[in-house]
Specification:
The structure holds 3 protein chains of 3 kinds. Chain B has helices at about 5-35, 70-75, 80-85, 100, 150-155, 170-175, 215-220, 245-250; strands spanning about 50-55, 65-70, 115, 120, 200, 210-215. By secondary structure, chain B is mostly helical. In chain B, the strands form 3 sheets. Chain B has a two-stranded antiparallel sheet. In chain B, strands 3-4 form a two-stranded antiparallel sheet. In chain B, a hairpin with a 2-residue loop joins strand 3 (about 115) and strand 4. Chain C has helices at about 5-25, 40-45, 60-75, 80-109. The longest helix of chain C has 29 residues, at about 80-110. The chains are: A alpha+beta, B mainly alpha, C mainly alpha. Chains in contact: A-B, A-C. Chains A and B meet through helix 1 and helix 9 of A and helix 1 and helix 3 of B.
């Protein structure tokens, strides 16, 4: 008996272990409206003796388009994948692009993130982001913030599209010195996607709705690789595991439990 | 060939590792095979069926919460609590706390002292100081003496009985119960998605009759979102395969059937005429 | 052989180098304030056309992809932070052009 014969046996064992330990097929708790879109980042925080960073999407998405952060600034769409560290922020990249004590939002300068000159007294400022497990009262309260916005079900419980339509939020699409000056997008027509299941209403996909906040590069080609419409079939299993539409529509944009938001073509 | 002692030791070690791995493999394969015919145990008595003990914050609360499904399921659909309000389907997995209740989430979505159900305002949960508040015992207790208002036998006396417990389907059909599916300020009305026709699901083993699954029956109380996509992510019949092992361990059909909807040991409820080997 | 003195010298040099780098790159290069570096102007020029990708011709798209490829080694030479940021942005920008190019070539067939 040698190592070479042992390896396939170990793989077979692991396969069966995974079968028995698989945890899909249950219903998990729905995150509360203010928890939905929460990202906890802990690549380096613990090493710096700080609590992990808690980033709430609801506040930032009301002020900036998805593209500004995920294309122009360059944040990855997967927790921990960007590899942001204090030096990057202090140099004015990633969070530091805006969190530099100079850029103005809502009439006030945005507080500085990870400044090199921070002392122990600045700890309160550090904890505005490095707040995991701590009771830190944010400057913006979700309930007060969301009270005037039109409601929808699931996710943050808010209709973000309608909020913008009604002029209640004005997401910024261009950051001076960061974003590349682009012309406005050529018109895209909506198209229907055929679900695999008979009887399930067709999905009406609107490029226009998506590009208003995302541009093109956010989705193509990294999230949607197929160059020919219909060449790739995405199943609900793929989507619920975070692939294709699920890159956004499981954790930040409206979740998959809202079937009729996508399957909206009248049957 | 003569082997020196270190070579002999290596050979012995390799052999024992191989035997251990082989034994483990046999055990695992054996359990995987038996999982296909995993049989569920008998449920508790009907009054305790569907009982969930919540004790995430037992150190700071006036005791664990004892939630009995029978009362709430007679008044509300499964969808309302598990989709609109957002409770998980596993004890202690939701993250309910006194503060979330006071904010109007979880239990506080109805238990806020204001929402009117059946002509009365529902009592507020976690509304005040535990020491002086008698209301706490309505949830943080186990029996009528401690402060519960409703008692199982008295409440279910008027409901049609099943072989085990209450026949909830018949209760709704006859109009004795009218589960509410919409809460103002929380639920959002959406266009109905047409149900698929009933279809047959083959059992994992050939001597058990196939199940006739009815979407119609399930979606009355669950809507679509309760099961799809979290519990059943597939949209194509036959894409997903699972066994009684999953069901008994609270996944797939077992997310509801076993602990709350109906016990799994009543095979005929799903497999018509039951497994042939049990008929004799 | 790593002597204690050698390690100390290396550490001192690294310690001096870090704050020097910090001062040099304390704010993002802005086209309105500091002098814009050549590669950055090229980057802005190349990646400003992503919105029009669908209406560009195959030749134009091919040229853009090639320009992105030319930019890559220049960005590789930048400091750690800028390299991380701009490589990511260039990847998305080039990716989009390549994607639309392939889609147009398929349509032609």
């Amino acid at each position: 008996m040698n190592g070479r014969r042992l390896v396939p046996l170990v793989f077979i064992l692991l396969f069966f272990c995974c079968q028995t330990l698989s945890q899909t097929g249950t219903k998990k708790a729905r995150p509360l409206p203010y928890e939905y879109g929460r990202v906890v980042i802990n690549n380096f925080s613990n090493k710096a003796d700080l609590a992990p960073v808690v980033f709430e999407h609801w506040l930032h998405r009301s002020k900036y388009t998805c593209r500004v952060c995920h294309v122009d600034i360059g944040f990855a769409m997967k927790t921990g994948a960007t590899g942001i560290n204090a030096a990057d922020n202090a140099r004015g990249y990633y969070c530091g692009t805006c969190h530099n004590g100079k850029m103005v939002s809502d009439g006030k300068p945005i507080f500085e993130a990870c400044s090199r000159k921070a002392t122990f007294d600045d700890r309160k400022r550090c904890e505005r982001c490095h707040s995991y497990g701590k009771k830190v009262a944010g400057e913006y309260d979700f309930f007060r913030f969301s009270a005037p916005l039109p409601k929808e079900r699931f996710g943050n419980g808010l209709d973000w599209e309608k909020s913008e339509e009604l002029g209640l939020i004005h997401p910024v699409a261009f950051l001076e010195g960061v974003s590349v000056q682009r012309k406005s997008l050529s018109a895209q027509k909506d198209f229907a996607l055929d679900p695999k299941l008979e009887g399930m209403p067709e999905i009406i996909f609107s490029h226009k709705k998506h590009t208003v906040w995302n541009g093109c590069e956010l989705c193509h080609p990294e999230i949607f690789m197929g160059v020919k419409k219909g060449s790739r079939k995405y199943t609900m299993v793929d989507i619920s595991e975070g692939r294709s539409c699920g890159a956004c529509h499981t954790t930040v944009a409206f979740p998959l439990t809202d079937c009729q938001r996508c399957h909206s073509k009248p049957v | 060939m003569r082997m020196c002692s270190s070579q002999k030791r290596t050979k012995r070690n390799e052999r024992s590792i191989f035997l251990i791995v082989l034994a483990f493999a046999v055990l695992l394969l054996g359990s995987y095979a038996s999982a296909q015919i995993y049989l569920p145990k008998a449920p508790p008595e009907p009054s305790a069926y569907g009982r969930v003990i919540l004790q995430s914050h037992v150190a700071t609360s006036p005791g664990p919460v004892v939630f009995d499904h029978w009362l709430h399921r007679s008044k509300f659909t499964c969808r309302l609590c598990h989709v609109d309000v957002g409770f998980a389907m596993k004890a202690n997995a939701t993250g309910i706390s006194a503060s979330t209740n006071r904010e109007g989430f979880h239990c506080g979505a109805c238990h806020d002292g204001k929402r009117v159900i059946e002509g009365r305002a529902v009592f507020a949960s976690c509304s005040g100081d535990a020491a002086s508040n008698k209301q706490c015992a309505r949830c943080h207790s186990t029996d009528k003496k401690s402060g519960r208002k409703y008692e199982y036998n008295a409440f279910t006396a008027k409901l049609p009985a099943a072989d085990y417990g209450v026949n909830w389907e018949a209760a709704e059909k006859s109009g004795v119960i009218r589960p509410v599916d919409f809460l103002d300020g929380l639920s959002v009305k959406k266009a109905r998605i047409q149900n698929r026709e009933d279809f047959s699901i083959k059992a994992a083993v050939s001597w058990v009759k196939p199940i006739t699954f009815s979407h119609e029956k399930h979606s009355i109380w669950n809507g679509c979102e309760l099961c799809h996509p979290e519990i059943f992510p597939t949209a194509k019949k036959g894409e997903l395969s699972f066994s009684m092992y999953s069901n008994v361990h609270g996944r797939r059909c077992g997310a509801c059937h076993g602990k709350v909807a109906s016990p799994l040991n009543n095979c005929q409820k799903c497999h018509p005429r039951g497994p042939e080997w049990a008929e004799n | 052989m790593l002597k204690r003195e050698n390690i100390a010298v290396v550490l001192v040099l690294v310690g001096l180098a870090v704050p020097c780098n910090m001062r040099a790159a304390s704010s993002p290069p802005s086209s309105t304030t500091e002098a814009v570096e050549g590669w950055q102007k090229e980057f802005e020029d190349v990646c400003s056309k992503t919105q029009d990708a669908m209406i560009l011709s195959i030749d134009e798209l091919t040229a853009l992809v090639q320009k992105c490829d030319t930019l890559m080694p220049q960005i590789e030479k930048l400091d750690e932070t800028r390299k991380k940021v701009y490589m990511g942005r260039l990847r998305m920008c080039r990716g989009l052009y390549a994607y639309v190019l392939e889609s147009k070539k398929n349509e032609k067939k």
